[in-house]
Amino acid sequence: xxxxxxxxxxxRGHAGRATTWPPRMATRADAALSGNTLWQSFIETLRNWIRxxxxxxxxxxxxxxxxxxxxxxxxxxxxxxxxxVVVPVAVVLCAVAILARRWRxxxxxxxxxxxxxxxxxxxxxxxxxxxxxxxxxVFAVALKGFVETHEERARTDRFVLRVAEMSSARDAPKLTRxxxxxKKGTAPPVGSFIEMKGKLLPALSPMRPGSYDFGRDMYFxxxxxxGFALGAIKVVDPPADGGWKLRYAKAMQDMRDAxxxxxxxxxxxxxxxxxxxxxxxxxxxxxxxxxxxxxxSGLGHVLSISGYHMAVVAGVVFFGIRALLALIPAxxxxxxxxxxxxxxxxxxxxxxxxxxxxxxxxxxxFYMTAVVLIAVMVDRRAVTFRTLALAALVVLMIAPEAxxxxxxxxxxxxxx
Length: 416
What we know:
It is a single chain. The chain folds into four domains: about 60-130, no CATH class; about 140-240, CATH 2.40.50.140; about 245-300, no CATH class; about 305-410, no CATH class. Helix content is about 50%, strand content about 15%. It has helices spanning about 25-55, 60-75, 85-100, 105-130, 215-220, 245-265, 270-280, 290-295, 305-325, 330-335, 335-355, 360-375, 385-400, and strands at about 140-150, 155-170, 175-185, 195-200, 225-235. The chain has a five-stranded mixed barrel with strand order 1-2-3-5-4. The chain is globular, with a radius of gyration of 31 Å. The model is unreliable at about 1-20 and about 410-415 (pLDDT under 50).
């Protein structure tokens, strides 16, 4: 019955027992309905996100992610894959992705093709740089070869020797390149042909499972062992020409030494070492206390030539040359001085890349800067996120091993 006020009368529960309204079954049904609504809303939101990311112009940044995932799968494999199988599969998947541009599953096909391409790129790079690696220490070995690189360190110097002749009492395997440490100031010049005796050791294994693998870096650099020089190093006449690569390495090293000599005439100690590091990329001469202080304070990335340094060099050249050309009215009215300035800035950035040694972070920054400057020259707009994606893709295609290198993970983009 309804009471006088017209209100609905709630059902009575047992004496001394609390009741709920609405009933428990109805509450559970409403909760289930609300849960389904939330789940459907989440699914719809996820679909909208995927639809937005795979829209026109949005798919490109995901391609290097999939490409890098394929490289990561290669390094996680238990055994070396067959290039004769991996490469054709990647080619077929790329062809399918090109033909499936109007399919609804086109984004998924592109991601699968990019992943297979990354796996194939890592496989081909490993096959291309395959060389002999020292398995056991050799305590006395006679070496002859060309000096390819020279690094100045805080206590010792280090150089890479392209081995021409190698002999030892234990008949060690013939190596292609070795990295040797010598007393400070006694390293032979780049491009010279030397003969010496040394102690060779296998590449260092990771300090703990999953930690950084120095041996992997040495392998992809073509270095089969490291060690120390024993006795004097003799510079002798080479039996043959070292090739254009050695001449190029010698020219760049002579230029770095000349720059360092000019800096040494003005600065000394760690100030000279930091100035040299910013110009030529040679950071090994910085003392350990200063190096540790830079990293503890969060300034260690300043020593690595990357986006900031490349943007400063390209920006100064671009605006400087454009300002100078703008002083001539005839050039300003008739010729595209902005494009000329971009071309000059691109040449300066390329020279800075070669002078600094072309590390992974420097390569990534150069590619990003190059995309921006080329976009200026062809009257196109350079999108920063696409620039990062293209730079990452180019670096991974050239050097797939860079994926596991710390320099690749430092994503500081240039701000040209």
